[in-house]
Amino acid sequence: KGTVNAMETHWAKATVTVTNRCSTGEVSRLPLFINTRAAPGEIDMGEAMLAPLQASSTLSVKLWFDLSMTNSDACGSFPIETIAARLFYRSSELKATNVFNHWRPHGGKFKGTLQLVPQPVDAPEPTSGYDKWSQVVWAGIMQAGSFNGMSWSLLHAATVELDVMEDVASGVIGLQLELACGGAVHYLPSGESLKEMPFTTAW
User: Fold this and answer.
1) Can you tell me the distance from the alpha carbon of 42 to that of 36, in angstroms, rounded to the nearest whole number?
2) Contact status, residue 148 vs residue 142, Cβ threshold 8 Å
3) Secondary structure of 33-82 in the HEC alphabet?
4) What's the pTM value of the predicted model, to 2 decimals?
5) Nearest to 40 by CA among 192, 151, 115
6) CA distance 148 to 49
7) For every one of its 203 residues, what pLDDT tens digit does the chain have, with 9 covering 90 and above?
């Protein structure tokens, strides 16, 4: 019995030796992928149970966020009205092909304005280190009788599908959230930084 935690990175795989308590001679080895979990006020990417960003000829990137702390702190307990999620990548490594929404807070639907854009016409600033991004925008989040923009927990909100360029075995992607609340705009992790994670075909 025990817990294995990722200390500083999602990039972890470990083999655990398991001994049967009733028969100590019975020993087995169990390979585990070790992921961190987004805390309140944080964003995340990838799979929840396996290696987070396993690539082959394609890469599927789940986008996660928990805005409970953001709502109470940065937003001063004002409701969150609009969210834009941007997945940053390099065109030499990846090419976005599709974006899917999974967040349906309005009685099993999203009744506000939803934009799913794999390849927008605009691009990140060169100083970001990336030349492409995919974007999801949720506007009109508050809907009377179904969602007030105040109740948040860890959420798998969207998935971005990408093709991996030929001869690319690994790389890095980044995620940033822009949200509007109380007449102000806030960014996660910040306006000057991204949540960055490596992907690889080597798992």
Assistant:
1) 11
2) yes
3) ECCCCCCCCCEEECCCCCCCCECCCEEEEEEEECCHHHHHCCCCCCCEEE
4) 0.85
5) 151
6) 31
7) 666 666 665 556 677 788 888 888 888 877 666 667 788 889 999 887 766 788 999 999 999 999 988 888 888 889 999 999 999 999 999 999 999 999 999 999 999 999 999 999 999 999 999 999 999 999 999 998 899 989 899 999 999 999 999 999 999 999 999 999 999 999 999 999 999 988 988 86
Of 194, 155, 179, 188, nearest in space to 65 by CA: 155
Residue whose tokens read 């290696």: 51
Query: Within a 13 Å sphere around the CA of 48, how many CA atoms are in the beta-carbon half?
Result: 9
Task: Return the CA Rg of the chain.
Answer: 19
